[in-house]
Design a protein that fits this description.
Elements (H helix, E strand, L loop, with lengths): L5 H22 L12 H25 L9 E3 L8 H42 L8 H25 L7 H21 L3 H16 L20 E3 L14 H24 L21 H10 L8 H19 L5
Antiparallel strand pairs: 1-2
Helix pairs in contact: 1-3, 2-6, 2-7, 3-4, 3-5, 3-6, 4-5, 5-6, 5-7
Length: about 325
């Protein structure tokens, strides 16, 4: 029996390459946005909380309105295979969610966004705009947002051929992909997106709902649902991912994450007129004439930075490396 294939090795190699590239990108952000330093456990807790909140916002309104009670318009969900039990269900979706996140967000989105950031950084350096905090942070954010939109559209197309897919269902798949991509890019960690993806999928299946139009297993005995009324209230045979309440909840979550990302980038830009994030020292005194003269003749270092900028850059790199090394493995 083969436990490790060539495809597995290629995926692991790509993950390592992308991780190193992402680390290099983050070291260029001086200072980095606050969300980048989110501890791994907090990212996982955030993803879990978002999954629970999304489930409640999607399913509870339909339950209250009687969308899962037998009546006019009610249809039983398609027959599924034999029950596999909650433990195996959650284990299966832990692996499935991790693989999807590695392929779509961990490798495809992160790799393309990192390359796009490098290209923009080269242009900023050519224009002399890569040192002050602001341009690089904005380039990092917009590169992630642009590529996330592209990958999410592809993610939606992959699910568009699923059974009983509707325009609202495909839109919701795109929206949840945007949320997952933002969690990966702005937290520099896959754990939050993986937790959200895992808890959502496993919970949906455990309760007996179809997941993206496919009913994998029946609900736990005496618990869960067996069918739903057609329409936007329940998502019909596609499952809760086709419900309008899911759309509203995802839009709100997405807006909150984008707003937080914009606020974090703005927080990295000093408001006191300094260009390197250092403390404003006030008017110079006559005693500083000698040092000013030295700076005029001292030139720049090999990288084009002045001594103070070079020292600031080295200190920022050292501090940020320590923050990255202190985090748990992703």
């Amino acid at each position: 029996m083969r436990f490790f294939s060539i495809a597995d090795g290629v995926l692991l190699g790509l993950c390592l390459l992308v991780g190193l590239l992402l680390r290099w990108v983050l070291r260029r952000l001086e200072p980095p946005p606050a969300s980048v330093g989110t501890p791994s456990w907090r990212s996982a807790a955030e993803g879990t909380g978002l999954a629970v909140g999304l489930l409640a916002a999607t399913i509870v309104p339909a339950f209250v309105a009687g969308g899962y009670r037998q009546g006019p318009g009610w249809q039983a969900y398609p027959a599924s295979g034999d029950p596999i039990g909650p433990a195996l269900t959650w284990l299966f979706f832990a692996v499935q969610a991790l693989l999807e996140e590695l392929v779509f967000r961990g490798v495809a989105m992160t790799l393309v966004a990192a390359v796009l950031f490098v290209l923009v950084r080269l242009l900023l350096r050519r224009w002399g705009m890569d040192h002050p905090p602001g341009p690089l942070q904005w380039a990092w954010l917009w590169a992630g947002l642009a590529v996330n939109l592209l990958v999410s559209a592809l993610f939606g197309l992959v699910h568009a051929d699923n059974p009983n897919a509707t325009p609202v269902a495909v839109l919701n798949v795109v929206l949840i992909s945007l949320v997952l991509g933002l969690l990966v890019w702005t937290r520099a960690s896959i754990l939050g997106a993986w937790a959200l993806h895992w808890v959502w999928n496993a919970s949906i299946v455990t309760l007996g709902f179809p997941i993206s139009g496919i009913r994998i297993a029946p609900p736990i005995d005496g618990f869960g649902v067996t069918g739903a009324r057609d329409g936007l209230l329940t998502g019909g045979q596609f499952g809760p991912e086709g419900a309008l309440s899911c759309t509203i909840a995802l839009v709100l979550i997405l807006c909150a994450l984008v707003w937080q990302s914009l606020r974090d980038v703005l927080a990295t830009i000093p408001t006191d007129g300094t260009s390197d994030g250092s403390v404003h020292r006030g008017p110079e005194t006559p005693d500083s004439d000698e040092s000013n003269a030295g700076s005029e003749t001292g030139g720049t270092d090999a990288g084009g930075d002045t001594p103070s900028q070079g020292s600031s850059r080295r200190c920022a790199d050292t501090a940020f490396d320590a923050r990255l090394d202190s985090r748990a493995p992703r």
